[in-house]
UniProtKB/TrEMBL annotation:
GO terms for cellular component: cytoplasm. Pathway: tRNA modification; tRNA-queuosine biosynthesis. Its main location: cytoplasm. InterPro entries: QueA, QueA_dom1, QueA_dom2, QueA_sf. GO terms for molecular function: S-adenosylmethionine:tRNA ribosyltransferase-isomerase activity. It comes from Pseudoroseicyclus aestuarii. Its EC number is 2.4.99.17. One of its GO terms (biological process) is tRNA queuosine(34) biosynthetic process. It comes from the Bacteria. It is found in: Cytoplasm. This is S-adenosylmethionine:tRNA ribosyltransferase-isomerase. Monomer. Transmembrane segments: none annotated.
Length: 354
């Protein structure tokens, strides 16, 4: 599935720091949109132009995952011979476990012992029940709706590392880093291409005869992990939970049968429908996917992709290269850099139609 001899360096490029967006465009649909269709030609448009760009009968596939306020800051208190000591503990929830506990990145993990409790405030406390060298397992005092409410009070949005390094998350991010159709809680990163849509744009697309299908992929923190191998075929993708319902599969199959185009909004939606289409046709699917789409991959379901501009040397650069071809993607990114498009999660978007 991989082109011969491809290495990590094949997906590298120089990105000026000032092109990394730390706030989104307002309104959402005012973001710029690079349109690349076929083998040549690039158009500079805006997301609000989508109703004029897409065709009646096209179908957009939307990821309806909801980002949880997964970043927590708390205090560990420990009593000893010299009295009580405290340590500030930062935790980022990575995902729930079958036993009701949560996997979490914890800093500094070395200051927390098994059995100790961290008070995150707002009525939310958690006990460290297991750990390894990289992360810990937390058991929270609350469960169900009580946990959701306490997490919403105590947590903040888990902004990507390249934004969090520049500023702390704030109340604006609770809206900005969430899609307008977010429904099923579980993601610790947003499906960022979807952040460009607002209700007026959705209404205009529907009036144009564009269909919508919702699927769910809970985006994990692994989406930000760097590729650490030189040969890309040696990379192992992180797994993320997703679901394509029977209704979604029927809608997508009907659109394809009517010769409409299936356009995934975001790489998460694309990876999910391609997972559900591994038999050569779309079907209901539920579980964890670690599909790695890279040059040489043959697409089964999607005809196109709307996506933001990605990190150098990332698996997402490999995915768009699989869709459009490596030379075409180099030209697209050269154009985006020359025209000073805004990059990454809060940046501008591209519409890629091979």
């Amino acid at each position: 599935m991989s082109g011969p001899g491809l290495t990590l360096e094949d997906f590298d490029f120089d990105l000026p720091e000032e092109l990394i967006a730390t706030r989104p465009a307002r309104p959402r649909s005012s973001a710029r949109l690079l349109v690349a269709e076929g083998g040549s030609g690039i158009k500079d448009r805006h997301v609000a132009d989508l109703p004029d760009i897409l065709r009646p009968g096209d179908r957009l596939v939307l990821n309806d995952t909801r980002v949880i306020p997964a970043r927590l800051s708390g205090i560990r208190r420990r009593s000893g011979e010299t009295g009580q000591t405290e340590a500030r503990i930062e935790a980022t929830l990575l995902g729930p476990r079958a036993d009701g506990c949560w996997n979490a990145m914890i800093k500094p993990l070395k200051k927390l012992r098994i059995g100790e409790t961290v008070d995150f405030g707002q009525g939310l406390t958690a006990e460290l029940v297991a750990r390894d060298a990289a992360q810990g397992v937390l058991r929270f005092s609350e469960a169900g709706e009580a946990f959701d409410a306490a997490l919403d009070r105590a947590g903040s949005m888990p902004l990507p590392p390249y934004i969090a390094a520049k500023r702390a998350p704030d109340d604006e991010d609770r809206t900005d880093y969430q899609t307008v159709w977010a429904d099923r809680p579980g993601a610790v990163a947003a499906p960022t291409a979807s952040l460009h849509f607002d209700q007026p744009l959705l209404d205009a697309l529907a009036a144009r005869g564009i269909g919508f299908t919702r699927v769910t992929l809970h985006v994990g923190a692994g989406t930000f992990l760097p590729v650490k191998v030189d040969r890309i075929e040696d990379h192992r993708m992180h797994a993320e939970w997703g679901e394509v319902t029977e209704e979604a599969a029927v809608q997508i199959a009907a659109t394809r049968a009517a010769r409409g185009r299936i356009i995934a909004v975001g790489t998460t939606a694309l990876r999910l429908i391609e997972t559900a289409g591994q038999g050569g046709f779309i079907q209901p699917w539920r579980g964890e996917t670690d599909i790695f789409i890279r040059p040489g991959y043959r697409f089964q379901v999607a005809h196109g992709l709307m996506t933001n501009f990605h990190l150098p040397k990332s698996t997402l650069m490999m995915l768009v290269s699989a869709l459009m071809g490596m030379d075409r993607v180099r030209g697209i990114y050269d154009h985006a850099l020359a025209e000073r498009y805004r990059f990454f999660s809060y940046g501008d978007a591209s519409l890629l139609l091979p």
